[in-house]
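User: Could you go from structure to sequence for me? I need the amino acid at each position, not a summary. C-alpha cells:
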C-alpha cells in the first residue's frame, strides 16, 4: 500500500470496479495514448469502507488485508483493460488508504488531467458525484474529466466549450481547442454570459446592442485562438437562455463538453460555478472542468 504517488504530467483515473469507473478508465486510456502521457490508476480504500472492521469480534487486520487484496485485483483488471485498449501506454498503479476526495485532490496537484466516473460502486454509489465529485470540480489543481454515460446511439459532433467572456475563460478555451486538435474534431464555442443578454435588456435597441457586442467579443476571442490551432474547424454560438441548459442540450451530441471552474467570490464566478456543477450533474457526455487562474 502506498501514498499518492503520481508521476508529474501524467493522467490519473479513479478506479473502483464500477461500470462508471470502467468507462472512465477506457476514456483515460485513449486520452493517455493520444497525448502520449503515462497513466496512473488510483484506487482508494476510504474510512467508510473500513468502519465496520472495528466491530467486536472482527479481525480488523484481516479485513484491511482483504480490502487491499481486492483493491490490487481491481487495479490489475483495470491495467489489463488499458493495455488491451492502448498497448503502448505506460501504466502505473496506486493504492491509497484514506479519503477518496483527499487522495484525488492530492493527485491533481501533479497530474496533467484527472479522470473520474460519474457514479461509484455499492452503498457508496452516489459518493463520487456527491462530496468527492463536487470537491474535484470546484477546487481542481488540474483539469478534471467526469465521464458521463452518454447516449450510445447518438452521433457525436466534436467538442463544445462554454465561455463567459471574462479572462477566466482563456484557459478553458485553450484546453478545448487542444482537445479538438488532439482528437481531430470540430469545436463549437458557446458564449454563456452570467445573465441572458436579451432578457436583461430594457429595450429592443439595448438588446440588439448587447447581442452585437457579445458577437464581437466571441469572434475576437475565437480569432485570437485560431492562429494557435489552425487545424481546428470552429463554429460559434450565443447562449439563448440558461447557460447550463444550453450546454447540457448542445452537449448531448458532443464527444466532450468543456467548462471552467471559477475561484474567488466575484458574482460572475459564483454564478458560473453553479452552472458548472449543474452541467456536470446533468450532461450525458463527458464533461471537462478546467480550473481558472487563482
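Assistant: Here is the amino acid at each position, in order:
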Amino acid at each position: 500500500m502506498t501514498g499518492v504517488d503520481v508521476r508529474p504530467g501524467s493522467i490519473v483515473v479513479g478506479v473502483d470496479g464500477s461500470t462508471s469507473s470502467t468507462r472512465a478508465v477506457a476514456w483515460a486510456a485513449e486520452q493517455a495514448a493520444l497525448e502520449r502521457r503515462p497513466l496512473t490508476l488510483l484506487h482508494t480504500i476510504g474510512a467508510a469502507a473500513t468502519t465496520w472492521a472495528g466491530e467486536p469480534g472482527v479481525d480488523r487486520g484481516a479485513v484491511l488485508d482483504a480490502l487491499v487484496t481486492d483493491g490490487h485485483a481491481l487495479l490489475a483488471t483495470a491495467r489489463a483493460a488499458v493495455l488491451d485498449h492502448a498497448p503502448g501506454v505506460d501504466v502505473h498503479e496506486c493504492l491509497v488508504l484514506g479519503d477518496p476526495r483527499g487522495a484525488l485532490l492530492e493527485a491533481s496537484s501533479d497530474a496533467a488531467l484527472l479522470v473520474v466516473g460519474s457514479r461509484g460502486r455499492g452503498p457508496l454509489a452516489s459518493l463520487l458525484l456527491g462530496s468527492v465529485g463536487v470537491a474535484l470540480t470546484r477546487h481542481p489543481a488540474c483539469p478534471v474529466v467526469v465521464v458521463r454515460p452518454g447516449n450510445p446511439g447518438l452521433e457525436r459532433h466534436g467538442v463544445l466549450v462554454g465561455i463567459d467572456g471574462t479572462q477566466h475563460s482563456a484557459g478553458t478555451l485553450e484546453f478545448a481547442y487542444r482537445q479538438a486538435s488532439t482528437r481531430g474534431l470540430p469545436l463549437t464555442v458557446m458564449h454563456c454570459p452570467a445573465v441572458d443578454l436579451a432578457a436583461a435588456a430594457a429595450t429592443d435597441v439595448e438588446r440588439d446592442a448587447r447581442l452585437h457586442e457579445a458577437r464581437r467579443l466571441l469572434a475576437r476571442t475565437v480569432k485570437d485562438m485560431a492562429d494557435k490551432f489552425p487545424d481546428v474547424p470552429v463554429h460559434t454560438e450565443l447562449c439563448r437562455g440558461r447557460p447550463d441548459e444550453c450546454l447540457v442540450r448542445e452537449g448531448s451530441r458532443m464527444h466532450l463538453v468543456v467548462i471552467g471552474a471559477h475561484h474567488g467570490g466575484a458574482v460572475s464566478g459564483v454564478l458560473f460555478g453553479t452552472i458548472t456543477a449543474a452541467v456536470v450533474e446533468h450532461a450525458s457526455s463527458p464533461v471537462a472542468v478546467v480550473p481558472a487562474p487563482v
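One structural detail worth keeping in mind: The first helix runs from residue 19 to 35.
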